[in-house]
Amino acid sequence: MLPVAAEWFSTWFDSPYYHRLYQHRDYAEARAFLDRLLAYLHPKPTARLLDLACGKGRHSRYLSEQGFAVTGVDLSPHSIAAARQFGHERLHFQVHDMRDPLPYGPFDLVLNLFTSFGYFEQEAENVVALRNAAAALRPGGKLVIDFLNTELTIKTLVTHETKTVDGTVYQLYRHFHNDFIVKEIRFRDDAGQEQYFEERVRALNQERFAEYFRMAGLRLAETLGDYQLGPFDPATSPRMIFVLKK
């Protein structure tokens, strides 16, 4: 019997090179987005928040600093181990696969931000993940999914890019294949060994998300198009930010 290949996100997200490559992300922009989102959603001060696919917990920590009780969950044990050093009585982190039912909750607000969805090889798993998120919400609770605008992304795909970070040269190749937007990441590690990783995000459009939401029993309240919370325009918006209600 052949061994089952590891899912790309279970290996790449746990690699120290993943964190090196993306260490210069604009966290000031992310915090500004969270500020706008909280002002738009105006959760009560007593609201319980879930950061679904929280990584190392930077955004969970910021949400906690705003006074909310926050739980951050992520598939990567290394990321959760890094996040837990910042935990306290109102900020908790757990290793969790969103395809499994959430034993935590219920929550008033679930956030899935910065394209942390659509990674799974089987499309049905996306619906399972949404159903689990919906089940973890209180009645009347809200779920926000922040995803890339796939149609615009495919049209404007940069097919090759070279990045040098902390002395490591990364060759990045992007293409569209079998319903996925794929990024190939090639580099030599600190020992001089060639390394190869992939990032794969299913190219989900509005219509398919709408079908997912219907199957998960979620009602779409609004679709926003950028981190300034402007309206969604399929031709020009960089993001698809779905605000859903249970």
UniProtKB/TrEMBL annotation:
Which Pfam family, any one, appears in the UniProt record?
Methyltransf_25
Q: Which GO terms describe its biological process?
A: methylation
Q: Molecular function terms in GO for this entry?
A: methyltransferase activity
- Gene3D superfamilies attached to this UniProt entry: CAC2371-like domains, Vaccinia Virus protein VP39
Recite the UniProt keywords alphabetically. Answer: Methyltransferase, S-adenosyl-L-methionine, Transferase
For this protein, the record's InterPro entries field holds: Methyltransf_25 (IPR041698), SAM-dependent_MTases_sf (IPR029063)
Q: Which named protein is this?
A: Methyltransferase domain-containing protein
- All residue ranges annotated as the Methyltransferase domain in the record: 50-141
